[in-house]
Design brief:
single chain, about 400 residues, alpha+beta, Butyryl-Coa Dehydrogenase, subunit A, domain 1, Butyryl-CoA Dehydrogenase, subunit A, domain 2, 3 domains, 7-stranded mixed sheet, 9 strands, about 50% helix
Length: about 400
């Protein structure tokens, strides 16, 4: 029951009622976010996606929800549970996977890195304006020639020069970077060979971000190619507790779980679109929902969604308990996005020719699923992380 005594509306696709595990106050917040997304994000999502433009006018309205950094303790706003923040992330993905990615990069990757790896002074300097979304963050790890092997292949360099660091190199696929105010850049220290984290502020000389064009997925996300040419960053912008790739991995462990939730949210959208189309579309004189093979598609989609949501819920519980492991994050990301890929393919098939027309929505989810399937570790890399945990033997090379 919610605080006002009314039963909360069931979440579409939550077949086993996992959202009932939320505390009443968390469920109230989820319903508030869901209403906002239905009114402001979903109606414009297809148009923004088609034009590959980001709806900057919505940022102040999202900020007013006060959900940025919801898992971080602030004075007067204690951290919410991972279960709460994860359901909210899924709701964003249900409305639009691009906007879920925008929020995930800002809140999970950028704010999460500063919270996890910054000093107390750095946290106090950057996190409050990021919470208010007055400063937007990006996260620069992937490079043009290093994606899956980036753990050992960071080629961007950092050289200490008195009170500053000089950064040189390139990053690719960096979400939000075309307009971000604070850019987390991971670079290898020429002195000790370790990967360190730096906050490069917007307008810093030597930092150039160019939008990646002609994408076929998550088109609303403003991904950038970043060039760093003798980019000088003050020592106070070096993240104090980011001194090796192990520190980077602590952030990625949490965000891989978040991508699993994005997969769940996108599957919720997939199920809604497919179910609504099946009961309204008529062929052979009856709704196609009355045909057995159509019902088989819907049952498979809801099964994939339910299994993925159950796994994602357990991920959030383990994170709340502080016992979440790398291989658990890897399995959740791999499993949920693979099930998404299968589900959206079945849904697109159910739409027939209409499934390739943007107006019906499913074509957008179909394309966006390919990006979720690949980023934050491909299926193959996450599979090998799990395999290493199962056997004690690495099989990466």
């Amino acid at each position: 029951m919610t605080r006002n005594g009314e039963e909360p509306a069931a979440l579409p696709g939550d077949f086993y009622g996992y959202a009932d595990l939320l505390e009443p106050a968390d469920r109230d917040l989820l319903d508030k976010v869901r209403g906002f997304l239905a009114e402001h994000v979903a109606p414009i999502a297809l148009d923004q996606w088609e034009r590959a433009e980001f709806p900057h006018h919505l940022v102040p309205e999202i900020a007013a929800l006060d959900i940025a950094g919801l898992g971080i303790d602030f004075p007067g706003r204690p951290a919410r549970s991972k279960l709460c923040t994860s359901f909210i992330a899924a709701e964003f993905a249900r409305a639009d996977a691009s906007m879920a990615t925008f929020l995930g990069v800002h809140t999970g990757l950028a704010m999460g890195t500063i919270d996890e790896c910054g000093s107390e002074e750095q946290r106090e300097r950057w996190l409050p304006p990021m919470r208010r979304m007055e400063a937007i963050g990006s996260f620069g790890l992937t490079e043009p020639d290093h994606g899956s092997d980036v753990a050992g292949g960071v080629h961007t360099t950092a050289r200490r020069d008195g009170g500053t660091w000089v950064l040189n190199g390139a990053k690719r696929w960096i979400g939000n970077a075309t307009f971000a105010d604070l850019n987390i850049i991971w670079a290898r220290d020429e002195g000790d060979g370790e990967v360190k984290g730096f906050v490069v502020e917007k307008g810093t000389p030597g930092f150039v971000a160019r939008k990646i064009e002609r994408k076929l997925a998550l088109r609303t996300v403003q991904n950038a190619d970043i060039e760093l040419t003798d980019c000088r960053v003050p020592e106070e912008n070096r993240l104090a507790r980011a001194n090796s790739f192990r520190d980077t991995a602590r952030v990625l462990r949490a965000t891989r779980g978040g991508v699993a939730w994005s997969g769940v949210g996108a599957m919720m959208n997939t199920y809604e679109l497919a179910r609504d189309y099946a009961v309204s579309r008529e062929q052979f004189g009856r709704p196609i929902a009355k045909f057995q093979l159509v019902q088989e598609h819907l049952a498979t989609i809801i099964g994939n969604l339910t299994a993925s949501l159950g796994m994602a819920v357990r991920v959030a519980q383990l994170q709340d308990q502080g016992i979440f492991r790398d291989e658990q994050a890897a399995l959740a990301k791999q499993f949920c996005t693979t099930r998404l890929r299968e589900s959206v393919a079945r849904a697109r098939e159910l739409f027939g020719g209409n499934g390739i027309v943007l107006d019906y929505g499913i074509a957008k989810v179909f394309n966006d699923a390919e990006a979720l399937y690949s980023y934050e570790g491909t299926r193959e890399i996450n599979t090998l992380i799990v395999g290493r945990a199962l056997t004690g033997m690495g099989a990466f090379v």
